[in-house]
Design brief:
By secondary structure, the chain is of the alpha+beta class. 24% of the residues lie in helices and 11% in strands. Strands 1-2-3-4-6-5 form a 6-stranded antiparallel beta sheet, with helices on one face.
Length: 214
């Protein structure tokens, strides 16, 4: 059997060493991309209007709304009974009745309460009326419309409320800090034996029959 000899190639005397430092180049160039601003489109619907108003409203446990913005009366919107009731804030007077009458006149003209339902309430000095129901798709907005009309009426009452408060402050200042014309210093008016129109002596005694006081 023949024999085959394979001669290996001699190794080349070449030594490859990695570089001690790897050259790294940092590119400091700042790349800014300017994006186009978003396009905003406002669609104006002439059939819709936006109303903003403020009221001091508190919700009761059963869902009724209590409004305390007026100086003479408190207003309640009874959501379950479909009623609007106005109560006297402190005490019943002609001023309170006038405020309640103006309120329900405004609500009647704006189509909030039924005309033939306005009457005195079960509480002394109160007035109430039945709310009209909105028909169609506007029914969920009925409470918002009622609060809007009450807010507009309270806005018309602000000049009256401010004048009443100013008059009360003027009367308090007149009593607590009067002018020189209506006040005297202590000791300016001399003391007299008798003051006023009630006599202290010479009157018939109510305790002893036939006796007189001296």
């Amino acid at each position: 059997m023949p024999t085959i000899n394979i001669d290996r190639e001699k190794e080349l005397g070449v030594n490859i060493k990695p570089e001690d430092k790897i050259p790294v180049y940092v590119d400091n160039s700042l790349k800014v991309k300017v994006a186009e601003p978003p396009l905003r489109v406002h669609v104006h619907d002439p059939t819709k209007q936006k109303f903003e108003f403020k009221l001091r409203v508190r919700r009761a446990l059963n869902g009724d709304l209590m409004i305390f913005d007026h100086s003479d009366i408190d207003i309640m919107v009874l959501t379950e009974k479909k009623k609007i009731v106005a109560f006297a804030k402190d005490m019943m007077s002609d001023v309170v009745y006038g405020a309640e009458n103006r309120l329900f006149t405004h609500l009647r003209r704006q189509g909030v309460v039924a005309y033939d339902s306005i009457q005195g309430g079960s509480v002394y000095g109160s007035m109430e009326g039945l709310m009209l129901e909105m028909k169609g798709d506007k029914q969920p907005e009925s409470i918002d419309y009622i609060l809007l009309q009450i807010s507009e009426w309270i806005t018309t009452e602000q000049p009256y409320s401010k004048s009443s408060e100013a008059h009360e402050e003027m009367m308090d200042d007149h009593l607590l800090d009067p002018d020189d014309e209506y006040s005297t210093e202590l000791g300016e008016i001399p003391h007299e034996d008798e003051k006023g129109g009630i006599q202290q002596n010479g009157m018939f005694s109510p305790y002893y029959y036939g006796r007189y006081t001296y």
